């Protein structure tokens, strides 16, 4: 083989750094989003810890958390909120779920909901007693006590519901989540669909990271935005193509092993006394809250 | 008399406008060990997918166990029988492994085929013991190393105990130790009248584990079908079909020409 001359030359020494620019924002964001999402989905470690929730049968865990979520959805008074909040804190403490684990998963929804409820603060949306008044031109716009209350309640409610779901996911291995769902009266196709979605997202995220690394290792000039955008578009096309191909291959692999439209699993062992106690406890909270309401 | 497993007559397959396999005639009998040899893109994987009833010939007929395999035919009782008897180890374990844990992965096949739960548990446990997978039982397969993934992929097919094993480039990307392990496993299984059809371009695998070679060329046709020994000896044929290529090597001051397969054979010179 005749190598061209330039290929035979090796760079003698590292060129002095000239203030390397940060990689383009899209590249960087893609990578960060991908690894953030992977981190959020990766709960194997916390689910493997020893803790209260982890000891319950997955079916009981899902059902119990569901009771608490519904209770949070219907409660309308401070006592209800405070008691569920205490339950959440207690459960995460007893299940060795750390503050960072929880906050990391709950914060995005907190910020999002926070922005969404902002308009409710204003007197034009929620009329009532002004606690703060701003003059815009000749118009008087105020933040009302009622608005603050409505927005605050909604924010707290959503955040608590998300915390409960995060608690469930953080204490449940992916496998148990799906066997648990299968053991409950949830339509089988729904469980299968959910499972496949999880699976794809995970592979795609890993692919996104790999592709980014591969590109980065080849790039010297962290250059022009236009280039980055073109690259971005071609990546998207590549992902769509790859994921279609992957979907086809995975479905073939499933068919090859006898899958005919519904995943058949093993029946699970019966629930134990502690599972019933937990379900009794959570449904008790649920009914009390309903009564207060 | 040996049973006939497959009979292909004039089988062609195209992906839309792109032909992937042309006019293939092939008879496979029980207990044979066949290598489907061909360069990249010659249609090996396509042939295996046809044999596993995942895609269907666009032309020609395919019989399995004496029965036509068509989209309409492959359902109900025949489908269950077919799936029980034929196992397919895919090229990429990442695609093949879709269950949440290794245990689920191994029990998936037999459960779909309605084997009794106790039997499934026993098979899974036996195989995990045999392949040393017990410690990985509750791990999600995508977190395993590539050698471990390959083992799990194989085990997940073996739990069904198929008579016919289709394997797509099984040695690709394996470290030498796992490769030896795989060879030993295939060799052991061959003693029990299993039929192997292995797509590969790894000549050491072909030489060690198969007694018949079906050679595909880059026009997607079968150009040779015969004894492994005879075909591996026919250097011109292998060169022509791009299975081996020649290039000079330097050993000290001596430069001479070697034949090489794309994967096999390189190690000894490095
Ligand atoms: N899903 C597909 N869509 C379109 N063309 C395909 C697809 N899969 C394979 N091919 C084409 O069919 C031919 C045979 O492919 P394949 O059976 O994968 O070959 P091999 O396994 O020998 O490398 C190739 O030309 C390939 O590009
Ligand atoms: Mg292939």
Layout of helices and strands, plus pairs?
The complex is a heterodimer of chains A (293) and B (270).
Chain A: H1 5-8, H2 25-41, H3 44-48, H4 52-55, H5 58-74, H6 78-94, H7 99-117, E1 130-136, E2 139-144, H8 145-170, H9 174-183, H10 188-218, H11 225-256, H12 273-292
Helix pairs in contact in A: 2-10, 5-8, 5-9, 5-12, 6-8, 7-8
Chain B: E1 4-15, E2 18-29, E3 33-38, H1 44-51, E4 59-64, E5 67-68, H2 76-85, E6 86-89, H3 93-96, H4 102-112, H5 117-131, H6 146-158, E7 164-168, H7 176-190, E8 195-200, H8 203-209, E9 212-216, E10 222-227, H9 228-233, H10 235-240, E11 245-251, E12 254-260
Parallel strand pairs in B: 3-8, 3-9, 6-7, 7-8
Antiparallel strand pairs in B: 1-2, 1-4, 4-5, 9-10, 11-12
Helix pairs in contact in B: 4-5, 4-6
Adenosine-5'-diphosphate is lined by residues 15, 18, 20, 38, 40-46 of chain B.
Rough outline of chain A: extended
CA-based gyration radius of chain A = 26 Å
Chains forming the largest contact: A-B, 29 and 37 residues
Number of strands of chain A: 2
What number is the mean pLDDT of chain A? 79
Q: What small-molecule ligands were found?
A: adenosine-5'-diphosphate, magnesium ion
| Low-confidence parts of chain B | 262-270
The assigned structural class of chain A equals mainly alpha
Q: Could you state the order of secondary-structure elements of chain A as H and E? A: HHHHHHHEEHHHHH
Keywords:
heterodimer, A: 293 residues, mainly alpha, 4% strand, B: alpha/beta, six-stranded mixed beta sheet, binds adenosine-5'-diphosphate, binds magnesium ion
Describe this structure in words.
- The complex is a heterodimer of chains A (293) and B (270).
- Chain A is 69% helix and 4% strand.
- Chain A is mostly helical.
- Chain A has one domain.
- In chain A, strand 1 and strand 2 (139-144) form a beta hairpin.
- Chain B has a single domain, classed as Rossmann fold, CATH 3.40.50.
- In chain B, the strands form 3 sheets. Chain B has a 6-stranded mixed β-sheet with strand order 6-7-8-3-9-10, sandwiched between helices. A 4-stranded antiparallel β-sheet of chain B has the order 2-1-4-5, covered by helices on one side.
- Classes of the chains: A mainly alpha (293), B alpha/beta (270).
- Chain A binds chain B through residues 1, 44, 173-175, 178, 195-196, 199, 202-203, 206, 246, 249-250, 252-260, 263-267, and chain B through 49, 52, 54, 79-80, 83-84, 87-88, 90, 92, 94-96, 98-101, 104, 107-109, 111-114, 117, 120-121, 138, 140, 142-143, 156-157, 160, 247.
- The structure holds adenosine-5'-diphosphate and magnesium ion.
- Adenosine-5'-diphosphate is lined by residues 15, 18, 20, 38, 40-46 of chain B.
């Amino acid at each position: 083989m005749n190598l061209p001359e330039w290929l035979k030359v090796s760079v003698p020494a590292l060129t002095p750094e000239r203030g390397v620019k940060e990689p383009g924002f899209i590249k960087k964001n893609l990578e960060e989003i991908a690894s953030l999402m992977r981190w959020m989905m990766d709960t194997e470690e916390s689910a493997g810890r020893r803790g209260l929730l982890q000891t319950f049968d997955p079916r009981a865990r899902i059902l119990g958390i569901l009771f608490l979520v519904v209770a949070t959805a219907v409660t309308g008074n401070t006592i209800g909120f405070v008691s569920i909040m205490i339950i959440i804190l207690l459960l995460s403490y007893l299940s060795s779920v750390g503050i960072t684990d929880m906050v990391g998963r709950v914060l995005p929804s907190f910020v999002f909901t926070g922005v969404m409820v902002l308009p409710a603060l204003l007197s034009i949306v929620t009329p009532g007693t002004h606690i703060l008044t701003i003059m815009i031109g000749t118009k008087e716009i105020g933040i009302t006590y009622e608005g603050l209350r409505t927005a605050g309640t909604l924010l707290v409610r959503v955040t608590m519901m998300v915390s409960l779901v995060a608690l469930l996911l953080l204490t449940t291995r992916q496998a148990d989540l799906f066997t648990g769902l299968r053991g409950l009266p949830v339509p089988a196709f729904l469980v299968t669909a959910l499972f496949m979605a999880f699976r794809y997202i995970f592979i795609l995220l890993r692919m996104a990271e790999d592709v980014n690394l591969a590109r980065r290792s080849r790039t010297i000039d962290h250059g022009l935005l236009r280039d980055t955008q073109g690259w971005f578009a071609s990546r998207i096309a590549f992902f769509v193509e790859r994921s279609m191909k992957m979907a086809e291959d995975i479905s073939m692999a499933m068919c090859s092993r006898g899958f005919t439209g519904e995943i058949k699993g093993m029946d699970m062992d019966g629930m134990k006394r502690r599972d019933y106690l937990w379900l009794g406890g959570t449904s008790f909270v649920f009914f009390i809250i309903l009564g207060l309401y | 008399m040996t049973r006939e497993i497959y009979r292909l007559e004039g089988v062609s397959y195209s992906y839309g406008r792109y032909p992937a396999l042309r006019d293939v005639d092939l008879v496979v009998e029980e207990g044979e060990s066949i290598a489907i040899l061909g360069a990249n893109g010659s249609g090996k994987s396509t042939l295996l997918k046809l044999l596993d009833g995942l895609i269907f010939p666009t032309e020609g007929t395919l019989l399995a166990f004496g029965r036509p395999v068509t989209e309409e035919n492959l359902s109900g009782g025949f489908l269950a029988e077919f799936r029980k008897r034929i196992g397919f180890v895919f090229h990429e374990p990442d695609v093949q492994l879709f269950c949440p844990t290794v245990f689920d992965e191994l029990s998936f096949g037999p459960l779909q085929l309605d084997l009794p739960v106790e039997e499934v548990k026993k098979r899974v446990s036996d195989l995990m013991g045999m392949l040393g997978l017990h410690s990985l039982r509750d791990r999600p397969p995508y977190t395993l190393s590539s050698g471990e993934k390959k083992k799990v992929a194989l085990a997940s097919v073996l739990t069904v105990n198929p008579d016919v094993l289709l394997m797509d480039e099984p040695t690709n990307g394996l470290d030498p130790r796992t490769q030896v392990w795989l060879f030993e496993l295939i060799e052991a299984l061959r003693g029990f009248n299993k039929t192997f059809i292995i797509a590969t371009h790894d000549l050491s695998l072909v030489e060690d584990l198969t007694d018949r070679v079906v050679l595909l060329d880059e026009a997607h046709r079968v150009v040779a079908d015969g004894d492994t020994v005879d075909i591996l000896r026919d250097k011109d044929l292998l060169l022509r079909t791009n299975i081996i290529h020649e290039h000079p090597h330097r050993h000290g001051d001596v430069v001479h020409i070697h034949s090489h397969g794309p994967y096999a054979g390189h190690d000894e010179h490095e």
